[in-house]
Design brief:
401 residues, Alkaline Phosphatase, subunit A, 13 strands, 31% helix, 19% strand
C-alpha cells in the first residue's frame, strides 16, 4: 500500500507500462431466475480469453460485508487504505470539473430528482436528464442566497451537480439529504457534531429554496445532496510509486479522484470508444494509465440486468484495441460490485485479472465471479492490487537482505 513504510527502499523506475482498466460496478450476483450473474450471461470472448492467459482472483474493496462508494473503491485500487484515506463525493466531483476549493469550503454532490405532489421521491436521478436540461436549472439554483454564508451551484454531467458552501466555521460533518431510495421524502440535513450546526442550517435553507424554485417542473423538481466534504491532502502516487501516472475518464468525478492522488488527467471524449482513442494517442507519454468505464455501473444502479449485460459486451468489443498496445501489465477489475438485482452498490467481491509476461494462464475458463474465484490470486483486499501490478511490471525490488 502507499503508506508501506519501506516503499521507497523497494520501488524503482522502469520503462514498463501498466494499464488499469477499471470497469465501474463490475461485480454482480446470480439472477434468481437463471443462477447466473451479468458477467456469466454476457458474451465477452475477449475478456474470457484474456482471463485464460492471466492471474485471476477476487477483490474485497474495503472489508468483508462493507459496501463501498466509488471513492473508497477507486482509492483502494490505487493502494490507498480506504478506511484511513477517506473523502466525500462532493470534493471529487468539484475537482473533476476543475473547481479549486479553498480552505474551509465544503462541497456536496447533488442529484436532481423527481418528487410527486406529496414530496415523495419517485426517481432519484430525474430520469437521468441530460446536461442541456440540467444546466438551466443549475443557473436558477446558483441565484439562491442563504444565511450564514454563500452557496454556489455548478453543473457536472446530466442530472448531477456540485454545491459549494463558503463561510466561516463550516464543517463537512453534515448528514446526507439523499435517503438513497424512492418512496420516501428527502431527509433533513443534520449536524453530526456541534461544529456543523451552521453548515446544516445553510444546507436545509438551500434545499427549501431549491424546492420552491423547481416545483413547477414535471421532473427534476427537487434536489438530493450527499458526500459533504472538504479538500484533504493525500500522498501522491506519482512520488510514492515513482510513476508518471495518467487518468483517462469521461466522467468528472473520476477525473477529480485521479487529480487528488497525483495523476495527470488527459482530456478525452464523452464515451468509452473516445477514451480508448485517447489511450492510443498518449500511450508513449506515461507509464501508468487509469482507464475508466462507467456504463456497467449506471445499468446496475438502474436495476437493468440486460442493460448491464449489454454494457459489458460493449466493453469487450473494444478490449482488443487496448491489448494491441501491448502494455507490459494489463489489469482489468472494478471498484465495487453493482448487482442489477440490488439496483445499487454491494459488498460482493469483484473479479480481477492481471496479464503480464509472467502470466501464462492457470485454468480459469472465463472472466466472471465464479471462475475468477478459482484463480491463483484468491480473494485479496483491493488495496493490495497495486503492489501486484508493480511487481509484474518489474517496479519492485527485493525487500530486506
Amino acid at each position: 500500500m502507499i503508506d508501506f513504510p519501506h516503499l521507497q527502499e523497494i520501488v524503482q523506475q522502469t520503462d514498463s507500462r501498466i494499464v488499469f482498466l477499471v470497469v465501474d460496478g463490475l461485480g454482480g450476483v446470480p439472477h434468481p431466475a437463471t443462477g447466473r450473474s451479468e458477467l456469466e450471461v454476457a458474451r465477452v470472448p475477449n475478456l474470457n480469453s484474456l482471463a485464460g492467459e492471466s492471474a485471476c482472483g477476487l477483490l474485497t474493496p474495503v472489508l468483508p460485508g462493507v459496501t463501498p462508494g466509488s471513492g473508497p473503491g477507486h482509492l483502494a485500487l490505487f493502494g490507498y487504505d480506504p478506511v484511513r484515506y477517506t473523502i466525500g463525493r462532493g470534493v471529487l466531483e468539484a475537482f473533476g470539473i476543475g473547481l479549486e476549493l479553498s480552505a474551509g469550503q465544503v462541497a456536496a454532490r447533488g442529484n436532481f430528482c423527481t418528487v410527486d405532489e406529496q414530496g415523495i421521491i419517485v426517481d432519484r436521478r430525474a430520469g437521468r436528464i441530460e446536461s442541456h436540461e440540467a444546466e438551466p436549472r443549475c443557473r436558477e439554483l446558483d441565484r439562491i442566497r442563504v444565511s450564514g454564508g454563500h452557496v454556489s451551484v455548478h453543473p457536472v454531467k446530466d442530472h448531477r451537480f456540485v454545491l459549494v458552501l463558503s463561510g466561516n466555521g463550516l464543517s463537512e460533518r453534515v448528514s446526507e439529504t439523499d435517503p438513497q431510495k424512492t418512496g420516501v421524502t428527502p431527509l433533513e440535513a443534520r449536524p453530526l457534531d456541534g461544529a456543523a450546526a451552521t453548515t446544516a442550517s445553510m444546507v436545509n435553507e438551500f434545499v427549501s429554496a431549491a424546492r420552491r424554485q423547481l416545483m413547477g417542473q414535471p421532473k427534476a423538481n427537487m434536489v438530493l445532496l450527499r458526500g459533504f466534504s472538504q479538500a484533504p491532502a493525500f500522498p501522491s502516487m506519482a512520488q510514492a510509486y515513482q510513476l508518471s501516472p495518467a487518468a483517462i475518464a469521461a466522467y468528472p468525478m473520476y477525473r477529480g479522484l485521479a487529480k487528488l492522488v497525483g495523476m495527470t488527467v488527459i482530456p478525452t471524449g464523452s464515451i468509452f470508444r473516445e477514451e480508448v482513442d485517447t489511450l492510443e494517442e498518449h500511450f508513449r507519454e506515461h507509464d501508468f494509465f487509469f482507464l475508466h468505464y462507467k456504463n456497467a455501473d449506471a445499468a446496475g444502479e438502474d436495476g437493468d440486468f440486460e442493460k448491464k449485460v449489454a454494457a459489458l459486451e460493449e466493453l469487450d468489443a473494444l478490449l482488443q484495441r487496448i491489448v494491441a498496445l501491448k502494455p507490459d501489465v494489463l489489469v482489468v477489475t472494478g471498484d465495487h460490485a453493482t448487482p442489477s438485482i440490488l439496483a445499487g452498490h454491494s459488498w460482493h467481491p469483484v473479479p480481477v485479472l492481471i496479464h503480464s509476461p509472467w502470466t501464462k494462464g492457470e485454468g480459469v475458463n472465463g472472466f466472471n465471479e465464479r471462475a475468477c474465484g478459482q484463480g491463483s490470486l484468491g480473494r485479496i483486499p483491493s488495496a493490495n492490487l497495486m503492489f501486484l501490478a508493480l511487481a509484474h511490471a518489474g517496479k519492485l525490488k527485493k525487500f530486506g537482505p
